[in-house]
Amino acid sequence: MYDVYAVREDFPVLKEVVYLDSTATTQTPVPAVEAMVEYFYKYAGNHGRGAHRLAREATNRYEDARETVASFLDAEPSKTVFTKNTTEGINLIANSYPWEAGDHIITTLLEHHSNLLPWLRLQKKGVKVTIISPDSEGKIDISSIEEAFTEKTRLVAITQVSNVFGSIQDVKNITRLAHRNGIRTLIDGAQSAGHMPVSLKDLDCDFFATAGHKGLLGPQGTGVLYIKEPDILDSASVGGGTVSDIEGCNYVLEPSPACFEAGTPNIPGVIALGKAVEYVKKIGVSEIESHEIKLATETAKRLSELEHVEVYGPDDRAGIVPFNVKGLHAHDVALILDQTRKICVRSGHHCAIPIVRFLKVDSTVRASFALYNTEEEVDILVDAVADLKALVS
Ligand SMILES: Cc1ncc(COP(=O)(O)O)c(C=O)c1O
C-alpha cells in the first residue's frame, strides 16, 4: 500500500481543508500542475498546426499524453479522443450517431443528467427512450435491461459507478448481453476511471466517456472519449484540425481522433492530464481503489450508527457516501461542515434529479474519497456529523 501522507504533499490545498468532494472534481498533483506551467513558459504553441519548434513540441507532448491515457485505459490511441469533460463526450456520441426515427435507447434512472439529457433530447428526432429503475441500493438488475430490448434497440447507455449511490454496475456483462443482441453500449466512466482498474479491451464497450478532472487527477476542462468504431460516426463538430482536403463544396475528414477534435484543444490541460495519469499509474489504481473503498465503507458504517443520520447506497460501494441528517437540509449540513471544520462535501441533487427523487428526498449530502484522503479525515467528518445531533433534537 502506498504512503498516503507522502501523496498528500503533492496536493498542497489538503493542508487547508478536509476535501471530501472528489466525485465532483479531484485535486491535481504538483507534477501535473508543473507540466502545465512548463507548457506556458517554455513551449506554448498550437497543436498539429505548424512546422516551427514550439508547435512541434506542443504537438508531440499532446500526442504523448494521448498514448499515456490510452494505454492506461487499455485502448488504442487512434480511438481515444480528448474532450473538455464527460458531458461533451456523451453529447458527441448522441449528436454524431446515425439515428433513425424509431430507434430505441435504453438508459437508467441512475444517470447523471449528462448521460440522460442527450438521449432524452433525441426524442425530438423520433428516437424512443426507456429508463430502467434500479433497486433501493442503486443497482441495476441486468435482466431488466434485457426485458427492455426491442428489435429497434441501438444503444444501452449506463454509468459504471453511480455518483449518487456509489453503486457499481456490471457493465461488462451488460455489454456482453447487449452485443449478443446486436446492441451497442455507452459506458459513463466519470466515476470509475482512475478509481478502479478499467480495461476497455476487457469491457469491450462501444463508447466510454470519462472526465480528466476526476479519478484521473487532471485539470478541469479535460475529458476522454473512447470510440471503438470511429467510422460509424459523423463528426459532431467540424472545422480546423478535422479536415485533410477541401475542393469546392466537398471535403475529406481526417481519420480519428483528429476528426473529433475540432478547433484548438485544451493543450496545457491535456499535457497535464497525461502527467496526472502517470501519477495515478505509479501509485497503482488497484491500491487506490482499495484505499477509497476502505475509507468509504468505514464512513458509511459509522454514519449509519448515528440515530439522526440516514445513509444511502449498498455495502459494496465505491468511494462515495451519500447521507442526510434528519431535520436538516443537505445544503445547511454542507455549509455547517465547511464553516465549523473546513470540510468540503457536495450537497444537492448531484445533477441527477430523477434518482435523488427516487430516494424521496430533494437532496443529499455526499462525502467522496480519493487516493489522498485519510482515516483522520473520516474521524473529523464523523465527529462533525455526530455533533449536528444538538441541532436536530
Ligand atoms: C456519473 C457521472 N457522469 C457524468 C458526469 C459529468 O461529468 P463532467 O463534469 O466531466 O462532464 C459526472 C459528474 O459528476 C458524473 O458523476
From TrEMBL:
- Reaction catalysis annotation: (sulfur carrier)-H + L-cysteine = (sulfur carrier)-SH + L-alanine
- Residues annotated as coiled-coil are none
Please give the Gene Ontology molecular function terms for this protein. Answer: cysteine desulfurase activity; lyase activity; pyridoxal phosphate binding
Keywords for this protein: Lyase, Pyridoxal phosphate, Transferase
- EC numbers listed for it are 2.8.1.7
Record flagged with keyword Transferase: yes
Q: Which CDD domains match?
A: SufS_like (cd06453)
Q: Which cofactor does it need?
A: pyridoxal 5'-phosphate
PROSITE patterns given in the database record: AA_TRANSFER_CLASS_5 (PS00595)
Q: Which residues form the Aminotransferase class V domain?
A: 18-381
Main enzyme class: transferase
Q: Which GO terms describe its biological process?
A: cysteine metabolic process
Instruction: Give one Pfam hit by family name.
Output: Aminotran_5
Which InterPro entries does the record associate with it?
Answer: Aminotrans_V_dom (IPR000192), Aminotrans_V_PyrdxlP_BS (IPR020578), Cys_dSase_SufS (IPR010970), Cysteine_dSase (IPR016454), PyrdxlP-dep_Trfase (IPR015424), PyrdxlP-dep_Trfase_major (IPR015421), PyrdxlP-dep_Trfase_small (IPR015422)
What PANTHER family does the entry give? CYSTEINE DESULFURASE, CYSTEINE DESULFURASE 1, CHLOROPLASTIC
Give the family from UniProt: Belongs to the class-V pyridoxal-phosphate-dependent aminotransferase family. Csd subfamily.
Name under which the protein is recorded: cysteine desulfurase
Lineage, broadest ranks: Archaea, Methanobacteriati, Methanobacteriota, Stenosarchaea group, Methanomicrobia
